[in-house]
Specification:
The complex is a heterodimer of chains A (450) and B (288). Chain A is an alpha/beta fold. Chain A contains 13 helices and 17 strands. Chain B has helices at residues 2-27, 34-42, 56-65, 78-88, 123-128, 145-149, 175-179, 205-210, 220-224, 249-252, and strands at residues 98-102, 155-157, 163-165, 185-189, 194-196, 230-233, 236-239, 259-263, 267-269. Classes of the chains: A alpha/beta (450), B alpha+beta (288).
Chain lengths: 450, 288
């Protein structure tokens, strides 16, 4: 805070897509009914697929462990509903592949009481016990990436975590999940922060919230008791501020080095819904069985924020909320970073933060792609200062090695700002996703060869 | 006067450098078999890698060294290979022709598309967008990455967006095998005539819903086949080519025509009981 402080509470570059949050941000979270058959893929997180520990025909209680973690970078999966294991076989997943999974038939007349495990007591538990508890609860990053939270919270030796940032930005258009969670589950969030602060050893906690959610910010400020090392920071609205690297720049004006993690600048960032889940589950030793999802978009009749059991088939969700006749595209996640769904038989997973449905009216015919006119709009939009124009040209000519080595392709986190602003409709992000997958594959081949 | 000094200085410099080059040429000379150059000229210069070497030059070196035989080069003609063999005084070597074969028959007229993919026209890119929208998770997406990558124009996409391999042009270089994101291509000797054109791991009606020519894992082919020729594994028939497989019997009772007999002249021959496919146009998107 000197004389020449040019830091303006936000990062440089980025875009301002229409927010479209007004339709659902005032609607309270409502419980969703249980689907008759719940379909649970074993690949819901980044890392090893969970290992099934039940057999066909077995009756399970809500909250019971159905699959255990397979390795350190993996989490268990809990039964979202009391019922019978109907079938253990391959189930369709969002990746377009069949993955191992469980078909769970719900008991229609069960009281659906939740099984509880060993509670993790905040006062007596050690940081490692808290991390173990987070893993046992099956908690992954609920913002969308679904990276196991306990791995992220593990501070490597020789590094230390000064500040814990709770990510309540939710910069993705249409989604209001985190907004509602902050308004309705403030107690859980503050409890979760206590667990997280103990696990990471952070002295200070900052909750980052965008200026379009001032009600949530004020509510949290009121809830924080005096003397708590927790503060709320409101930052201007901009996409992609919810990315942890951008958020760190916005709040603390620190830059995470290329290829590095937030812990390299002594920070750990956790999503606000994940924090609430930790604060709610750990004192009871429960596992995660449901999550808040925004179902919205012009194609949905009953838009809203719903508490949906994990594993509910997408087709059932759309039937329950009602969709228009002429729906054309369904996104899981938001319209910027989410994935267009090719199959309505896939189910809600832990990383699903929203479902956005568009009708034929909004979806343009496949736009004509024109050559790059070197206008530089993408360069001005890229929040991590890459050169998407150059990268796009290289991708077209399949110069993947040059993209990775000379132009920092692997730093791209696929926010989609470049494609959004491109006047020539070049599908830049798709090029980069493809290139990144090829570069990763090549790297794997070379390491295997060694 | 100045110009003379300049000429003399540069002239002597030229002489000294020339002398150094002469010495280096003598000192660092490496003997190379002159036959390598000749053999390389006789090779087709396709640099396709079908022989297992990075290009024609390393292959020529290996030929001269005697570690491989000319028959390994699948691109060259019969005469071409014979000229090399005669020149080196070696036998022609293994000449069995290998080709790339596609383990999918689900074109747009028979296989279901759940969604209409509108992005970058490439199978690899489409696979990353929740699988590409094809009903069958294992099936050909039909955007023609293989057609683009083939150096010999051996692959063309047919009317129902399925790649067709020209057996004469195919050199089994393996580029299509590598590029296919669904791993549908494999290199097979031309003599393997019995072929399973499906990779769907599901069974029964689930398959038929997605594709009319998919393997339903009924197992009739395995039952009809002599000896241990066919085994069912993960809902697919696996042909054991080390057995005598020159029989069309296993194809006869296949209800969908997923197991076929590949004939040089007649092309793909399906069994008598296989469903006849009449539709020429595309199947509508979504469940029919």
């Amino acid at each position: 805070m000197g004389l020449f402080n040019f830091h303006r509470d936000t990062f440089k570059h980025g875009i301002h897509p229409p927010e479209q949050k007004r339709e659902t941000n005032g609607l309270p979270i409502r419980q969703f009914p249980f689907a008759p058959v719940i379909v649970l893929p074993m690949v819901q997180h980044i890392g090893g697929p969970s290992e099934i520990v039940v057999r066909e025909g077995q009756e399970v209680n809500r909250g019971q462990v159905l699959a255990k973690a397979n390795g350190y970078v993996s989490v268990p999966i809990h039964a979202p509903v009391s019922g019978t294991i109907r079938k253990i076989s391959n189930v369709p997943s969002i990746s377009g592949k069949m993955v191992p999974g469980i078909y769970l038939e719900a008991f229609p007349s069960s009281s659906q009481e939740v099984m509880e495990g060993t509670p993790i007591d905040l006062d007596t538990a050690t940081p490692d016990e808290i991390l173990k508890g987070i893993q046992d609860a099956g908690i992954v990053g609920l913002g969308g990436a679904a990276f196991p939270t306990h791995v992220k919270l593990k501070v490597p030796e020789g590094k230390n975590c000064e500040i814990l940032i709770i990510n309540g930005i939710e910069c993705e258009p249409y989604l209001t999940t985190d907004h509602r969670v902050m308004l309705e589950q403030a107690d859980d969030i503050l409890m979760g922060i206590k667990y997280l602060a103990k696990a990471t050893g952070a002295k200070q906690t900052i909750i980052g919230i965008e200026a379009n959610k001032t009600d949530a910010a004020n509510h949290l400020k009121r809830m924080i008791s005096d003397g708590d090392p927790v503060s709320v920071k409101v930052v201007p609205v901009k996409y992609p501020q919810g990315s942890e690297k951008m958020l760190i720049t916005s709040i603390l004006d620190r830059e995470v080095p290329s290829g590095g993690l937030p812990i390299d600048v002594n920070i750990v960032v956790v999503n606000v819904a994940t924090t609430a889940e930790i604060g709610r589950l750990l004192p009871h030793g429960r596992g995660i069985q449901e999550r808040v999802i925004t179902i919205t978009g012009p194609g949905v009749k009953k838009k809203g924020n719903y508490l949906i059991p994990i594993g509910t088939p997408l087709r059932y969700v759309l039937e329950q909320v009602g969709v228009e006749e002429n729906i054309s595209e369904v996104y899981m996640g938001g319209p910027m970073m989410g994935v267009a769904v090719s199959n309505l038989d896939i189910s809600i997973v832990k990383g699903t933060s929203g479902i956005v449905v568009f009708t034929e009216k909004e979806v343009k015919k496949a736009p004509k792609v024109y050559p790059c006119i070197k206008c530089g709009a993408c360069v001005d939009a890229c929040p991590i200062f890459l050169n998407p124009s150059k990268l796009g040209i290289l991708a077209k000519f399949e110069a993947y090695d040059s993209m990775a080595e000379d132009y920092h392709l692997m730093d791209c986190f696929e926010c989609g700002s470049c494609s959004y602003v491109c006047p020539s409709n070049i599908p830049l992000v798709q090029y980069f996703r493809l290139s990144k997958s090829i570069v990763r594959k090549r790297k794997q081949v070379t390491t295997n060869a060694k | 006067m100045t110009i003379l000094i300049a000429i003399a200085a540069l002239g002597s410099l030229t002489l000294i450098l020339a002398l150094m080059l002469v010495l280096a040429n003598k000192k660092l000379y490496v003997y190379e078999d002159p036959r390598i150059e000749v053999v390389e000229d006789l090779l087709p210069h396709a640099n396709c890698g079908a022989c297992g070497f990075p290009g024609c030059r390393p292959f020529a070196e290996a030929l001269v060294a005697g570690s491989v035989l000319p028959g390994k080069c699948t691109v060259s003609t019969d005469e071409g290979r014979k000229v090399i063999a005669d020149y080196l005084g070696v036998s022609l070597g293994n000449q069995e022709k290998w080709v790339a074969r596609l383990a999918c028959a689900g074109g747009t007229n028979v296989a279901l598309n759940r969604a209409n993919y509108k992005g970058l026209s490439s199978c690899k890119a489409a696979t990353l967008v929740s699988g590409g929208g094809k009903g069958c998770f294992w099936g050909c997406l039909g955007h023609g990455d293989c057609e683009v990558v083939c150096d010999f124009d051996a692959i063309t996409m047919n009317a129902s967006s399925l790649p067709v391999v020209d057996m004469d042009k195919c050199t089994a270089c393996g580029d299509c095998v590598e590029v296919c994101p669904k791993d549908l291509f494999s290199l097979q000797p031309l003599s393997h005539r019995l072929w399973v054109a499906c990779k769907n791991l599901e069974m029964g009606d689930e398959v038929l819903e997605e594709c009319q020519v998919g393997c339903t894992a009924c197992g009739k082919c395995a039952m009809d086949a002599p000896g241990n020729l066919i085994a069912m594994e993960h809902n697919l028939p696996i042909i054991n080519y080390s057995e005598n497989h020159h029989t069309q019997v296993p194809t006869q009772r296949c209800p969908t025509g997923a197991i076929v007999w590949l004939d040089d002249e007649l092309g793909v021959i399906k069994g008598k009981e296989s469903k006849k496919i009449i539709r020429k146009g595309d199947r509508p998107i979504g469940f029919s």
